[in-house]
């Protein structure tokens, strides 16, 4: 800590001396015309002779990441958004005064501007020969040591700005995230979907089962909730006549934080009139194969050492059968609450012994015994009605719904179903949810969204809808083990 304070004091002293000499610490009149990574790519094949023939001056700005002092000359590397390039600062080229200034007052971490031609060193490294050099931004804090960087994971997330400076891999993750979002947006727009925005603050949280964040609107004297899902508003748009809609936006759930969960996360939800959940299975296969090809040129990717093959068709396994055949749950205990509790205890699975809904106990077994075993893309279908309050009942078996979850690499990535559009059935299910609500259960809000039921009474066309967790998709396609790796600023406890 003392060492850090000393370094900070030295840098502040340098900054004060520069200002006293009339050199601004944060000028805004330097305009780079070239980028480090672009130059590296453009002139990758040029030898020294070819570079000399260019007779061209290049102008770059970037952060100093390293320097080697040779008395009358200094090699440094600068880094901009596109990559790094070496700069050779020589007294005879920039002049005595600028060279002294550079050597004494410029530090690693400072953002500088350089101008000059390109050449290759004896080792073959593409280098800018500085004919002019300027300070653009003075860094008051030093960067982490080159070989140590930010090793503390929480510190990396808390100081993401430093993490991005020091780790090219991290920058690449977020570039890939942007490419994924652009691909998805382009896919839906090109397939006739209308991109929309629905309320982030809602008087009744609906569309999923989760604990909401509460807020208060003073002008309306109204308690509001940050949305847990946009579903009920998107369905209102189907009622209104938009037949294909999608939204890419944030959801908020006041629940635990883990490698798979962040309280604030990005979802893609889309709804398609005159379609079924089976149509969405085909569309989902198309989306994920397209993504893999777009990013890596192959339907196969590697995630945490395992090959994931998105080549369709993907297996489709009914929920109950998955419990029995994959989860190893004896079929004869599925209708006995007591036997399920005993089985869960034997397996060390935490369940609420007061839970009155049998199928919710099934869900706990599924999460522990089935989901982690599904590595290749798999559709789980035929969910019980009790676990699917907004999904359409199956025509042949009304105890199950026309719903699927997509499981990849042991976690849910997407959830979809043919939509329930019978207002009578919808009201009955809302009422049943409230009736079965436990006194201490914070997950189900005890209020029916009457306006949504009213919307259904005006008539919603048959439709199917799906939600895709963008953060989990990015985890898959960037080989990231934790959701915090793919969120720029994940939520953390306050610093002590």
Automatic annotation (TrEMBL):
Q: Which organism is it from?
A: Thermosulfurimonas dismutans
Q: Which UniProt keywords apply?
A: Aminoacyl-tRNA synthetase, ATP-binding, Cytoplasm, Ligase, Magnesium, Metal-binding, Nucleotide-binding, Protein biosynthesis
Give me the residues that bind Mg(2+) 1, please.
405, 412
Record-annotated residues binding Mg(2+) 2?
412
The entry's localization annotation reads: Cytoplasm
Question: Which cofactors are named for this entry?
Answer: Mg(2+)
Provide an example Pfam family for this protein.
tRNA-synt_2
- Family the entry assigns: Belongs to the class-II aminoacyl-tRNA synthetase family.
| This protein's record includes keyword Metal-binding | yes
Q: Which InterPro entries match?
A: Aa-tRNA-synt_II (IPR004364), aa-tRNA-synth_II (IPR006195), aa-tRNA-synth_II/BPL/LPL (IPR045864), Lys-tRNA-ligase_II (IPR002313), Lys-tRNA-ligase_II_N (IPR044136), Lys-tRNA-synth_II_C (IPR018149), NA-bd_OB-fold (IPR012340), NA-bd_OB_tRNA (IPR004365)
Annotated GO CC locations = cytosol
Which gene name does the record give?
lysS
Provide the reaction this enzyme catalyses. Answer: tRNA(Lys) + L-lysine + ATP = L-lysyl-tRNA(Lys) + AMP + diphosphate
Q: Which PANTHER family match?
A: LYSINE--TRNA LIGASE, CHLOROPLASTIC_MITOCHONDRIAL (PTHR42918:SF15), LYSYL-TRNA SYNTHETASE (PTHR42918)
Q: How does it assemble?
A: Homodimer.
Supply the HAMAP family for this chain: Lys_tRNA_synth_class2
A Gene Ontology biological process noted in the UniProt record is: lysyl-tRNA aminoacylation
Which Enzyme Commission number(s) are listed? 6.1.1.6
**Molecular function terms from GO:** ATP binding; lysine-tRNA ligase activity; magnesium ion binding; tRNA binding
Q: How is the cofactor bound?
A: Binds 3 Mg(2+) ions per subunit.
Q: Enumerate the spans annotated as Aminoacyl-transfer RNA synthetases class-II family profile domain.
A: 174-494
Q: What class of enzyme is it?
A: ligase
- Which domain of life does the protein's organism represent? Bacteria
What is this protein called in UniProt?
Lysine--tRNA ligase
């Amino acid at each position: 800590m003392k060492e850090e304070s000393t370094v900070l004091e030295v840098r502040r002293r340098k900054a004060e001396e520069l200002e006293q000499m009339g050199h601004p610490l944060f000028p805004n009149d330097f305009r780079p015309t070239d980028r480090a990574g672009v130059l590296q790519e453009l002139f990758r094949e040029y030898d020294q002779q070819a570079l000399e023939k260019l007779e061209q001056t290049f102008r770059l700005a970037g952060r100093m990441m390293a320097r080697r002092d040779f008395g009358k000359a200094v090699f440094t590397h600068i880094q901009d958004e596109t990559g790094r390039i070496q700069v050779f600062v020589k007294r005879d080229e920039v002049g005595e005064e600028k060279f002294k200034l550079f050597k004494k007052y410029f530090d690693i971490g400072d953002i500088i501007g350089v101008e000059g031609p390109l050449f290759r060193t004896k080792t073959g490294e593409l280098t800018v020969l500085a004919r002019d050099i300027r300070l653009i931004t003075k860094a008051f804090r030093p960067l982490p040591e080159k070989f140590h960087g930010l090793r503390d994971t929480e510190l990396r997330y808390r100081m993401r700005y430093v993490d991005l400076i020091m780790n090219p891999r991290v920058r690449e993750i977020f570039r890939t995230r942007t490419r994924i979002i652009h691909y998805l947006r382009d896919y839906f727009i090109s397939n006739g979907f209308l991109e929309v925005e629905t309320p982030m603050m809602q008087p009744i949280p609906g569309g999923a089962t989760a604990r909401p964040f509460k807020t208060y609107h003073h002008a309306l004297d109204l308690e509001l909730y940050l949305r847990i899902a946009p579903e009920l508003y998107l369905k209102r748009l189907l009622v209104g006549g938009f037949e294909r809609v999608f939204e890419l936006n944030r959801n908020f759930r006041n629940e635990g934080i883990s490698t798979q969960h962040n309280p604030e996360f990005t979802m893609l939800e889309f709804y398609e009139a005159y379609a079924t959940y089976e149509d969405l299975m085909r569309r989902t296969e198309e989306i994920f194969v397209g993504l893999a090809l777009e990013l890596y040129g192959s339907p196969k990717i590697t995630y945490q050492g395992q090959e994931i093959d998105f080549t369709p068709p993907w297996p489709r396994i009914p929920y109950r059968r998955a419990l029995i055949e994959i989860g190893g749950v004896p079929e004869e205990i599925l209708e006995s609450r007591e036997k399920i509790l005993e089985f869960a205890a034997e397996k060390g699975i935490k369940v609420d012994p007061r839970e009155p809904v049998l199928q919710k106990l099934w869900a706990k077994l599924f999460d522990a015994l089935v989901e982690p075993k599904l590595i290749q893309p798999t559709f789980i279908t035929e969910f019980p009605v009790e676990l699917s309050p907004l999904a359409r009942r199956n025509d042949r078996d009304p105890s199950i719904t026309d719903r699927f979850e997509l499981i990849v690499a042991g976690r849910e990535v997407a959830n979809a179903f043919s939509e329930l559009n019978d207002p009578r059935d919808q009201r009955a299910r809302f009422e049943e949810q409230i009736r079965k609500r436990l006194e201490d259960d914070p997950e189900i809000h005890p209020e029916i969204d009457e306006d949504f039921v009213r919307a259904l009474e005006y008539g919603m066309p048959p439709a199917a809808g799906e939600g895709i967790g963008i953060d989990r998709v990015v985890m898959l396609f960037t080989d990231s083990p934790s959701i915090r790796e793919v969120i720029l600023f994940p939520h953390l406890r306050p610093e002590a």
